[in-house]
Amino acid sequence: MPATKINPGQDVGVTVEEPLIEQPRGLRAPGTARMIGGSLIGALCAYLFQVVGGRTLGTHAFAPIAILWTVFFIGATVSLIPLEQFVTREVGRGRRVLIADRSVVAVVTVGTGLLLAGFVYFTRDGLFDGQSIFAVQAFLLTVLYGFMQVGKGVLAGHRRFATYGSVLLLEGLFRLAAAVGFLAISPTAVSLGWAMVAAPLGIFLISPWRLDRETVAGVVPTPARGFLSSYAVGASASQLLLAGAPLGVAALGGGETLRSIMFQTFTLYRAPLTLIYNLQGRVLSLLVRHGNGDAIKHLARRLLIVGAVLVGAAAIVGFGVGPRVVELLYGAEFRPVALVAALAAAGVIAAAVTQVLSQALVAAGSTGELAGAWIGGLLVGLATMLALPGTPDFRVAAGFVAGEVAALAIASWRTVRRS
After folding, report:
1. Which residues pair with 5 in a beta bridge?
2. If pLDDT is split at 50, 70 and 90, which confidence band does 35 have?
3. 367-387 and 224-242 helices cross at what angle (nearest 10)?
4. Which of 59, 324, 336, 411 could in theory staple to 373 by disulfide, Cβ–Cβ 3.0 to 4.6 A?
């Protein structure tokens, strides 16, 4: 017979039935390896999608997909990933989020879809070859990903990490398979847009929302509006830094070819950060249950040391082999200059370290502190981009790395102070 015990981090007075045999905890918990594996394979499929699309269409015809991907990535990271983390945090605390907060989920998902569709529609002549169908794709893409992100939050909150990995795997496979099939029928950017829409459909094969349970007695709900609004403000600043390179180049007068080069370069180099976005629910679940002030201070100090070393190493590797890697994958017409490649690589590593560190603030519900760090980084990045002379790609890349380093410094200080 199982014995009754209180889990660490659980609300006082709430007991659950749990076997006496201890299961591995922390990052060694069951399913973590499959979660990482699914994320790696899904990321590989995403890059193969870029390779297939870029080589089939070329820099000019691929430009609408570069902008659509960028716009969606910004929109999803600003609203849908915070929504997933809210669900993860609340489900991990013992709340039935899909019933209690269903209106919040609907407003965030549909509202984001309408905003992105509106942007695509009103910029269709300049950025999307005058085709309104991309606005429809942007809306469907956002709503379907809303289902997927909420489902991932439920899985992470319930510690179903193996199933979470399956979701990431299906996402990548669905997108790549649809791209190959649709391009064989019609080799156009619109075909690639529909392949992007197909990516999140795998979530309906898993239906993770069936795991939603009754709220555990004594758990106080986190105010969704304050949590999400602060997180969205910070994520907006973060993504303008991270994913706005093609838009920044366009604003500084760069043409379609340069936009495609910057898109492919930043998308390729974003691999570490993309993996962290997929796996941060694992870190958040751990911190919600077992985080404490001393452990978080120790984590912050170690991340700063490791991050500084990795940022320097990324700059060296990016300068030395970065352009050749981009050329090998996407073709010579997508090759960036070496300095831009070095700056992009260094900035992405700084952003990745900041994102891991930010989970401590999210676990504590201090999304306002996180927003301040990203806003500070964005201001530094914009000032750098506007102040420096040079070509649009260099100015955007220099502003990016300056902003990411500034955000890391502010987030580290606030995390240590908060803990």
Report:
1. 16
2. confident
3. 20
4. 411
Confidence of residue 40 (pLDDT cuts 50, 70, 90): confident
Instruction: Count CB neighbours of 408 within 10 A.
Output: 26
Rounded Cα–Cα distance for residues 403 and 383 (Å) = 9
Helix (H, G, I), strand (E, B) or coil at 16: strand
Angle, vertex CA 87, rays to CA 16 and CA 109, nearest 5 = 155
Query: Amino acid letter at 58?
Result: G
CA distance 143 to 153: 16
Cα within 13 Å of Cα(39), Cβ side: 22
Q: Is 408 helix (H, G, I), strand (E, B) or coil?
A: helix
Alpha-carbon gap, residue 10 to 93, rounded angstroms: 7
Average pLDDT, the chain: 80
Mean pLDDT, residues 156-185: 91
Choose the most confident range, by mean pLDDT, from 178-192, 208-222, 323-337, 404-418.
178-192
Decide: 404 and 347 in contact? Cβ < 8 Å: yes
Q: How far is CA 89 from CA 22, 84, 216, 317, in A?
A: 23, 9, 14, 37
